[in-house]
Write a structure and sequence with these properties.
Elements (H helix, E strand, L loop, with lengths): L10 H11 L5 E3 L6 H6 L3 E3 L33
Antiparallel strand pairs: 1-2
Amino acid sequence: MYQIAFENALFDRLVPWLMLNHRGLSILVHPNSTNPRRDHLNDALWIGRPLSILGDMLPTSQDVPDEAGEPNTSPIVSAE
């Protein structure tokens, strides 16, 4: 697995490039908000073959689980 983050302004250039050049890799493109479960399961798109996601391992928003969260502009990478 590999993760990249990009600004919204690059979406219309980067995502079509990935679609044409993914070479069989599966790529999950999703927003990065304060609701990771919704980001990965409801608001994502797959390029290539979709893979299974362990949705029950993803946290929901503390406020309203079914609503989109605020953009997360300060993500923290866990050491786990």
